[in-house]
TrEMBL record:
SUPFAM superfamilies: Nucleic acid-binding proteins. This is OB-fold protein. Residues 28-61 form the ChsH2 rubredoxin-like zinc ribbon domain. Residues 65-131 form the ChsH2 C-terminal OB-fold domain. It comes from Pseudonocardia halophobica.
Length: 147
């Protein structure tokens, strides 16, 4: 997989506020990889990205790909918002906060795929997938196959 430079991340995600701590997260998204910082010393996962482990104060935190398994912690259906390619507020745009299987309390915000709005439930097991938005991959979660 070819390396994506910081400038390319900024060019491809012009609406994101990029900094030294979160650029690896967004670089991962462009490669269809969900990268969460993990402490190399104690194993703690940390999201949003932070340069130091909040448990052991190690600065050896590494962007690490997660399994993509999790459960819906909360969700909402947006009926209005800023114009975004591929987002239809008129029919409702689902936004879910998913607690990742890697560690209690580690959550990411994304949209959904392959599920009707009225089927969404807190606690629903979900799996990471990717949808296209304006030509770029965006993380989404769909019901887990075993559910
Ligand atoms: Zn640590």
């Amino acid at each position: 997989m070819s390396e994506i430079t910081d400038q390319q991340v900024a060019d491809r995600l012009p609406d994101m506020w990029l900094d030294r701590d979160n650029v690896e997260f967004y670089r991962g998204l462009l490669q269809r990889r969900l990268l969460i910082n993990r402490c190399a010393d104690c194993g703690r996962w940390q999201q949003p990205p932070f340069p130091i482990c909040p448990s052991c104060w190690s600065d050896d935190v590494r962007p690490t790909e997660v399994s993509g398994e999790g459960t819906i912690h909360s969700f909402t259906i947006l009926r209005a918002g800023p114009p975004l390619p591929g987002v239809d507020y008129a029919s409702g745009h689902p936004v879910v906060v998913v607690e990742l299987a890697e560690q209690q309390g580690v959550r990411v915000t994304a949209t959904t795929a392959d599920v009707a709005h009225e089927e969404l439930r807190v606690g629903m097991p979900v799996t990471l997938t990717w949808v296209d938005r304006g030509g770029e991959p965006v993380p989404a979660f769909r019901p887990a196959a075993s559910a």
